[in-house]
Write a structure and sequence with these properties.
Structural class: alpha+beta
CATH architecture of the largest domain: Up-down Bundle
Number of domains: 3
Largest sheet: 5 strands, antiparallel
Oligomer: single chain
CATH topology of the largest domain: ABC transporter transmembrane region fold
Number of helices: 21
Distance between the termini: 81 Å
Number of strands: 10
CATH class of the largest domain: Mainly Alpha
Keywords: Membrane, Transmembrane, Transmembrane helix
Helix content: 55-70%
């Protein structure tokens, strides 16, 4: 409750800021928004009258008496023209609102006299200002509409107001008492409000039907207006709450943009709202760690006996915790928590871990779950240690040798091919054309042009190679077991399938040793692989890596080797 009151005070201070700096624009936008809503309501209401007139032989008795003095066809034409006029008025109001918002947002940013804080801050400021103005207009429109409806149909206005209060009380009580409902609203507030608005509309409709069947119904025109007005009121109420909630989500940025005494802190957190780092604090994590261990089928220990160690992984927003206890002397548990924007890597990693492929140096995955709204994986590790970077670099060739021997089931390969591009798909002419910007000589330009022209030939050689499992950037995630010195890679969020040789060190002694290793493999796909094509795959992968990191000069340096290898393969094909 304190958080909600804090947010409400912030809304008032933000609105006061807007009115101090751009009072006329803010007032004009509120008025224009109300005009647009009323014009939109009438542009929906009048066509109903026209349809009623077209379906009647004369003038319906529930039409205003003044209409009976007019010619029927002339009245239809007049109402049609008025409908079109209200439609144009709503469009004009929307255009004026957009223009006024742009001008007001620019003036607000100018008056704040701050440096550029982040990309697209003008768009953020404009959207925030428009959202606040629209919410304010909705806050004015709703009581006006209820008052007008109450003048003609008091019971209906009371029903709408009572239902709105009821929904507010239910939402507030559930938010305070239920953690699950609180998380649901945090993630899907607009959906929840939309559902409540639809239920409210059907409640209004049911009440109206009951009035006509059992009680004293209002006039037919009043009934139609009530239906349309209730739809507008519920829609505006949803927009009001959603708009204010959206502003609260942007609070750190808006404070930095509009308030002189506040600066933007990149890691600023919304008070009162759960986040990944609050979840990991020692006083918080003890509770959910015990629940996760129980779910994983691990006999829980007392929280005082549970040891938690942070593991450096170089993976932003994917913290790694090493968990062990006195009653688990022969095992360690690796618990990974993925931030809400890292669900895709979490699913990609879990897909491989649950395949149960023989020979893959991945820890045993024993649980995939969620902690609050964060994906969580639990792995079982043997007692050991995370290797330092220099040690890991020396051990990586041993791991890479194991990768080529892993048998990939067709089911996994087909699923991957349907979801992810291979190296041959990623190396396209459009990607290689970027290298032209770094060409400093005619020779560089000719090399780029020649490779683009021979791209189909390159693709053909790469497709001839068997696909193997790849895991780039393992250097900070190599775990070595104490008992047998076996190695495991802890991070698999970027695993891929690529042609044999992709990701290998560019030709040199390490590459030669890997090629020698292939000759001793019993698998014919490996021991008969053309070493020149394997080398071509390593070069092509290196070219893509340099290109993605915009190291275009390094990429240009690789091109002559790729072209030489293509020429050697071409000459060999001619000789055969």
């Amino acid at each position: 409750m304190a958080y909600i009151l804090n947010v409400l005070r912030w809304y008032l201070s933000l609105g006061a800021k807007f009115y101090r700096v751009v009072p006329l624009m803010t007032s004009a936008i509120v008025v224009l928004t109300i005009v647009a809503q009323i014009a939109s309501l009438l542009s929906f209401f009048l066509p109903l009258k026209i349809i009623i007139l077209l379906g009647s032989d004369g003038m319906p008795r529930y039409f205003p008496a003044a209409f009976s003095q007019l010619d029927r066809d002339l009245l239809i034409a007049w109402l049609s023209g008025t409908t079109f006029g209200f439609f144009l008025l709503s469009l004009l109001a929307e255009k004026l609102i957009a223009k006024a918002t742009e001008v007001a947002a620019g003036e607000l940013l100018g008056k704040s006299q701050k440096m550029v804080l982040f990309e697209n801050q003008e768009d953020v400021a404009a959207k925030a200002y428009q959202r606040y103005s629209s919410a304010l207009a909705a806050g004015v429109f709703i009581p006006l509409a209820l008052f007008a409806l109450g003048w003609f149909y008091p019971s209906m206005a009371g029903l709408i107001a009572g239902y709105s209060v009821f929904v507010f009380v239910v939402f507030m009580a559930s938010y305070r008492l239920s953690e699950r409902f609180r998380e649901y609203l945090d993630q899907k507030l607009t959906s929840a409000l939309g559902l409540a608005a639809k239920l409210g509309f059907f409640l209004v409709f049911a009440y109206l039907v009951m009035e006509f069947i059992f009680f004293s119904p209002p006039g037919f025109i009043i009934a139609i207006i009530s239906i349309l007005a209730s739809r507008q009121i519920f829609g505006r109420a949803t927009a009001l709450v959603s708009g204010l909630h959206g502003l609260a989500q942007q609070r750190p940025r808006l404070d930095g943009l509009f308030f002189h005494g506040k600066v933007l802190v990149s890691q600023q957190l919304n008070p009162g709202k759960k986040n990944l780092w609050a979840l990991l604090q020692p006083e918080t994590r003890a509770g959910w760690l015990m629940r996760v261990l129980e779910e994983a089928g691990v006999q829980p220990v007392g929280t005082g006996q549970l040891q938690v160690q942070w593991l450096d992984s170089s993976k932003p927003n994917m913290p790694h915790l090493l968990v062990y206890g006195a009653d688990m002397p022969d095992q360690r548990l690796l618990i990974k928590v993925f931030d809400v924007n890292r669900k895709s890597p979490a699913q990609h990693e879990a897909m491989l871990a649950t395949e149960g492929l023989e020979g893959v140096p991945i820890p045993s995955l024993i649980l995939v779950t969620e902690v609050d709204r964060f994906a969580c994986h639990v792995y079982r590790l043997p007692p050991g240690q995370l290797l330092k970077v220099p040690q890991a670099k020396r051990k990586l060739p041993a791991l890479e040798k194991r990768f080529v021997t892993i048998h990939l089931p067709p089911r996994l390969v087909n699923r991957y091919l349907r979801s992810r591009p291979l190296l041959v798909d990623r190396l396209s002419a459009e990607v290689l054309e970027r290298l032209y910007v770094a060409c400093s000589s005619r020779q560089d330009t000719l090399h780029v042009a020649e490779l683009i022209n021979r791209l189909a030939e390159l693709h053909l050689h790469l497709k001839a190679l068997p696909l193997v499992l790849m895991n780039p950037n393992m250097v900070r995630s190599v775990w070595q077991a104490d008992a047998d010195q076996s190695l495991l890679a802890l991070n698999w969020d970027k695993w891929s399938l690529d042609p044999l040789g992709a990701g290998w060190p560019l030709p040199g002694k390490p590459f030669a040793r890997l090629v020698e290793h292939l000759a001793g493999e019993p698998d014919r796909r490996l021991n008969t692989a053309d070493s020149r094509k394997v080398r071509l795959s390593a070069l092509a992968y290196g070219l893509e890596d340099f290109n993605n990191r915009q190291l275009f000069n390094d990429a240009l340096d690789v091109l002559p080797e790729i072209l030489d290898m293509l020429n050697a393969l071409q000459d060999n094909a001619i000789e055969e």
